């Protein structure tokens, strides 16, 4: 009787333990689905609001990709791992470990994408910091080699820099999957490869965290990146300790909890990338609300419009008669006031650097000066084009003059360079033509070899060729052809991968490409682009002046919305409010 009683109690306890494990398993699965639905909601919100100025500099395509994958990863893969890890349920199928390994490698791939995004954000912050510092460092050493300014078109180009991160991930992912396929077990070799992958990305993220510059950007990108790095590194360390050091193996309860840790890490990764920026700037965090907001007129006005819509919806005119929105009309006149102020350009440019959007102002200024030049040389046709479809803004006389449009020999002040740097610069100018100039450089584009060796490098040329790596825009003589000036501005601001590439939609960028017959996969010289442009415009000056209409309209809208944030700064209060109210 005593033995039977013990056996009965033992069986009851085992049933209760099994029931408890069942409850825990299904509870963890329910938590996985809740986490995945939350992540999916944030991903949809982030995708719908990706064109907001505070979201655009964050490279939104990467968080959207990571959020989409993590939704599937947590909801499906982690849940089936829980079922397989349960002793009584034990959901098994052939090749389970290989499928699990594929999902784990794809998740580690998202970590490498996060590392790539961290690098891109880090480079942008350092670049804008270098631009802001250049105004005083130039007085100490005009030929100083600022690395981030010089290499933006290579190391700051996301289309090029994503490949090293993907290659580093793939090089270790393939051996890991091969080891799982051969051994059909989580062997010591596979775990060693996993440790190597996690260690590599962890060290890189920690290096970015340590080197992250202290830069007062309006969008608080630095704060969000540090939060993201902290959560990812902490989660990876916990996962590595539990999964690798303790060697948890399925099916077991320990492996089930390890799976839940990985789900939480993936969720925190999306929290830092998706939810934190939305919450910081008080944007909608529910998909339905975000959808409604994205369809409102406020957001549509921040988008670029097509060439045909431009003539219909052109709401910004010099007299304000066509503007049907009081707020935009007010901001429009405030922007005019700022640009006419003697210190306005300098202060507003400094603010745009904090917004990581200085290229908007630079593009608008240079194209405005180009249009003024076309007006002077184009006669009545150009005047008619101005009256028809342009946003015309006057700038203060202290605003900088475009080197492409307003070339002046007085800018070529001689500067003494170190002998090795001077020799290298002159040698590169004489032997290596620009990528855009073909085998035979144009006289209007770069100085000839004889002129380069006959006189020292000018201060302007040294700043472009040594510091900014913009030697293709350094001119030895003035460009008098407005068509060639247009090509130069296109290469500098519109072409993908250009040094100051402006933020316009892909659709409108492709339309501008068509005017020039530009192809990103081929190398064309400026003279070829000029011929195509003349053919597309029927050699008509009016059509030439309309080339950048949509691009100018788009960046002008962005600058108008920057004005409202500029008004909240102490600088604006000091220079535009306090000084105006002071008695003369």
Commentary on this structure:
The protein is mainly alpha-helical and 584 residues long. 69% of the residues lie in helices and 0% in strands. It is built from 25 helices and no strands. Helix 15 runs antiparallel to helix 16.
Reported for the largest beta sheet, the result is:
none
The total count of strands amounts to: 0
Radius of gyration: 29 Å
Q: Percent of residues in helical segments?
A: 55-70%
**Principal-axis shape:** elongated
Could you state the order of secondary-structure elements as H and E?
A: HHHHHHHHHHHHHHHHHHHHHHHHH
* Count of DSSP-assigned helices: 25
Q: Decide which structural class fits the backbone.
A: mainly alpha
- The stretches of 5 or more residues where confidence is low (pLDDT under 50) are 297-326, 412-469
Please state roughly what percent of the residues sit in beta strands, choosing from under 5%, 5-15%, 15-25%, 25-35%, 35-45% or over 45%. under 5%
Determine the mean pLDDT: 75
Cα separation of the termini: 108 Å
